Every structure is written in structure tokens, then in C-alpha cells.
Amino acid sequence: MLSKKYKRNEAFRFVFNQPLDAQFSVLVNGRRIDSEMHPCKIIDIGPQGMKVFTDFDISKIYKHPPDLLQLEMHFVLDIIKIQAIGYICWSRSYRTGVYYGLHFRNQPAVEDLIISEMKSRRRKEVIDKKQMEF
Q1: Taking the model in full, what pTM does it have?
Q2: Strand 49-54 versus strand 38-46 pairing type
Q3: Can you give the pLDDT of all 134 residues of the chain as single tens digits?
Q4: I need a surface site. Which of 24, 66, 69, 119 has the fewest CB within 10 A?
Q5: Which of 56, 48, 66, 47 shows the shortest CA–CA distance to 22?
Q6: What is the C-alpha to C-alpha distance for residues 101 and 98, in angstroms, rounded to an integer?
């Protein structure tokens, strides 16, 4: 487990009312060591990172230091499938699973896509809410 206190410094972070389904595979120093895709839930997201929850405890399976591990995330926020490499900044066990804080380092295309997809998703949510009020 990483011991440093980590606080994401971003312009915005979107917290989902219902966590969003996603998948990940495990990388060490950028090389895939896991051929499986593991399910997880995105709790919140910003242009440079996310918080996820999974029942798959990486530290119990892989004996590498957490700072060498990355999660290759696959998710859809609105329409486009996004693939991003998340560096594990912190982890916290909770009941039967683990929360992971991920940072997307030097991935400007991913940042732009997350912002674009979240804007589009949010517009649709606002429109749906207005239509439900009538």
C-alpha cells in the first residue's frame, strides 16, 4: 500500500451518482503482465485521473511495488471508448474490494477526450432531467 498522502489537483472532478462500469488490465513499467480484463467501477473522474473500486486486489496477486504498477483502463463516458494508463497513487481496502486512486500522466489526448465526453454526457443528463420534469 502506498503511504504518501495524495490529493488530485484538478479544475473539476465528476462524481457519478451510480458508479460507471469499466475494465482494466495490469501493467508493470508499461508492459502488460495480465491478459485478463478485470471489472471495476469508476467512482469519480477528472481530466487527469479517477477513483475506481474493484474486487480484484492487485497487491495480493502481483508482488511488485505499487509505484511500478499501472492499470490500463477501458471505459465509455458517453459514446467513445477511452483507453488510458492510470498510475496507482493510493489504494484503500474496503470490505471485499479495494479503492484505487489513478493518475493519468502526460496523456493530453486522453484529458481532452475525458473533458469532451463528460460535457456531452452532462448535456444529455440535463436534457433528460428537464424532459422528466414536464
Answers
A1: 0.86
A2: antiparallel
A3: 444 555 556 667 889 989 999 999 999 988 999 889 999 999 999 999 999 999 998 888 888 887 789 999 999 999 999 999 999 999 999 999 999 999 999 999 999 999 999 999 988 888 877 787 76
A4: 119
A5: 56
A6: 10
